[in-house]
């Protein structure tokens, strides 16, 4: 080995830079050690596999690698498995040379330097460590990454001709072709339920006032409930003709919708973070030996049920709506193909007018667990499948409201606003119907602000018409998380005789989000975003979250001073946003885009439509919600042409909200990162940027109090989102013990042992260790001693409310013991202001705690609930 090291050192002195044309794109290469053995990946498709040395065999595909790159770095990967040279954490002999799906990340960038004909040294681009050998240079040897000071060895490149497999390999089905994201799928639109007229809309008081409830409209039909169900472990076993009305499903089991089928004993929940549960090379779903996918390659669920078409629908257009299905599905009505969709957390809607009939009808849905879309659904969570959100139908006149966008603009002092509505009316019938659009605005107290004709509808057959309307509103009540004042907007269509033919409603908040001086302002005032990341997960319901769980989550958040949610890492149920509006939560709405295990997908152009569709549908559905203050392009997916296209598409739809994206700040309107130390956070904060800076994820490992102490005094930070709201855990089908099963408990592979257990509440929503600390750090009232012993300084950290809405009590304490307590008159302190409060002589020399509690009941807590506990040490 000494002779080899000396030879290598002499050669290194003569190193010349590698030129781009010395490695050819049309060739594959075998990398040969000094003793003549080839690096071999064993044809493994499993991430974190290791390489070994084998005898050179030019016909062995496991020894063939593509090498691509330039002066910024080279990638080395197998075109057959997609696995690339990668580095992991340090081992006994330094960093092992490991494999991971090819994605052009920094871990996979190498410097290749020629030291002679076809002879090279290979160093990691960032660490500068060379690829060496962990063992002797013999068959079975293991390549590794060297340590500081270790000299490189020389590898010989042997060029091999042959057809190089494509970067993306597609299958024969729609769900294995990333270019097909839907068939016959209608454009996205705001959540709305049509009613025949305004009177029937207002008569449904429960839905009219609380739009998260189930509507009782004659033009609405829920398809939730029990469906006939069949499950198989792979597509070849599925009942292909089950959608035919003649197909007998009477012997099938039943499953409720919405639900995830694993919760009913079908298949295996898989908790994974980064590693895909299947081969990470898109777009075919290929099982990996040793993974759960080996025994369950790609489960398929076949669903069927009947429904009765409501009376009066035969003369209308009829639509079938899915709120969300994991991961892709096809649908038939009465045995006739309707369409296909993927994107499990976005709405899908189909026009079924031509296939429904009076009386009884049959609907059939085929769901595949994994699709090409699953490559950008690589989130840190339990992977489950099925129709996990609501399914419903609605009827509309042949000319009807298809979508509407509500917005407001303000005077400089916010004392007046211009309300605007842009309404799209769709004509699926005959000639121009001569309809007119009317808009009514009702204030939070139920008083009509205006009720005006917005304009004539001029849509011809199979055309749409846009009706623009605006009106001035004086002294609007402004929406914020502290003061969630909601107006109601009613849009209705009337024919030439004045008869109403359709009515829809939408809750609306007057509020403005803008960036100024490195901060984010809501209604002209700086806001601290005191947030949590929230997955939709629950041990009983998995991802099929009911309203009751969401309401409980929001109430617990509000009671613990949490004012913001990042929808990690996909849009949540439509009803959830109505609840965020109502209770007052600022929302970072995140697109269902994450390719953490293969960041290179973000720069594969054939995936562009999928990225854009997910971002656009999120905006189209949620843009009327005042709670949404940020759009987020996705999570942990690096940069690339697809992220850029998604960003541009969202900007084209809505420029009233800043865009967030931690994967690459250059695509966003703010800076963002995860889990920095306080020192690193401060360095980034003070780097000269004039953009807002937020922590999209942080944890207790870095000190919650220390993080927030710095945020409050920072130059441009606006807050952060704790990781995360609740633990991940599931009940196991057939186990009635109440035990919550965690990552790995289902025997799934891959898994992430110990993951998903960093919540502020447990999986079943019991407060966990760090919730009190978050509550304390997030409270908006602070108290400090002054130079005068009996006086204290009280600061109102709220953005919109006066402290006179709270009762105040102060206590003298001795350690953990309350010695005495007294009430104070409510203190009149405006938002952002500080005032001096005199406690009297009895406070001198005492340790004091002030408690601020609600004077009145709120939607989220009764009077007496304590919002801030403020100790003052003399």
What is the compact description of this entry?
By secondary structure, this protein is mostly beta strands. It has 11 helices and 50 strands.
Molecular structure report:
This protein has 874 residues and is mainly beta. It has 11 helices and 50 strands. The chain has an 8-stranded parallel beta sheet. Strands 13-21-20-23-18-15-16 form a 7-stranded antiparallel beta sheet, with no helix packed on it. A 4-stranded antiparallel beta sheet has the order 1-12-9-8, with no helix packed on it. Helix 5 runs parallel beside helix 6, helix 7 packs parallel to helix 8 and helix 10 (704-713) packs parallel to helix 11. The longest helix has 15 residues, at 608-622. The chain is globular.
